[in-house]
Amino acid sequence: MARASTIDKLPADILEQLQTLLRDPRVTQIDATQSINEALQHEGYDITVSKSAVNRYSMKMEDVGAKLQQSREMAQMWIGKLGAAPQGQVGKLINEIIRTMAFDTAMHMSEGEDPVPPKMLAQLALAVQRLESAANMNEEREKQIRKDAALQAAEKAEESLAGQGLSQTAIDTIKRDILGIG
Asked: Which one of 51, 123, 162, 182 has the lowest number of neighbouring Cβ atoms within 10 Å?
């Protein structure tokens, strides 16, 4: 088992200072290491960080940042393809991607010589169940939002039309049309 890096042992405020220094392109890793060691000494901590520990941490931060950037770009691409579609469409896309990944995982596991562990099957089933539950909740939320919007539109129409002298019968007909009531 690998031992913990000195970076992992840093107090939260000093770790935050290190992260800030590493994000600044004007600060070298050597300068960041020196600055953090000075801060540790100033605050009375009996640890120091090495340049190699700072370098490993910096590379890890860059890797995480690159993955984040890649996921943002991918999301932007799909959002661009969806155009002005409701945000629910993005959620549906993510659900579908995860369902596909669960299916692929299950298929890959079933192709092996060893039987699929029951615990893994239970976890996959639970993941799919949670996805379906979330999808149903989103659908119900979308329905409620549309219903609330229609009610608001009907109320606004009633106020506006009543102010214009339209008969209550005509107003009620327009409200039913807005609300989709036959």
From this structure: 182
- CA dihedral of residues 114, 115, 117, 121 (deg, nearest 10): 130
Length of the chain (residues)? 182
Residue 131 forms part of a structural domain: no
Examine residue 56 and state whether it is found in any structural domain, yes or no.
yes
Q: pTM here?
A: 0.45
Give the count of domains, the chain: 1
pLDDT digit string, tens, across residues 167-177: 888 888 888 88
Whether the Cβ atoms of residue 29 and residue 22 lie closer than 8 Å to each other: yes
Give 75-94 as a DSSP string. Answer: HHHHHHHHTT--HHHHHHHH
**pLDDT tens per residue across span 47-92:** 899 999 999 999 988 888 887 778 777 767 766 665 545 556 666 6
Distances (CA, A) of 141 to 54, 94, 111, 147: 47, 17, 39, 10
Identify whether 76 is part of a domain.
yes
Provide DSSP, 110-173: HTSSSPPPHHHHHHHHHHHHHHHHHHHHHHHHHHHHHHHHHHHHHHHHHHHHHHTT--HHHHHH
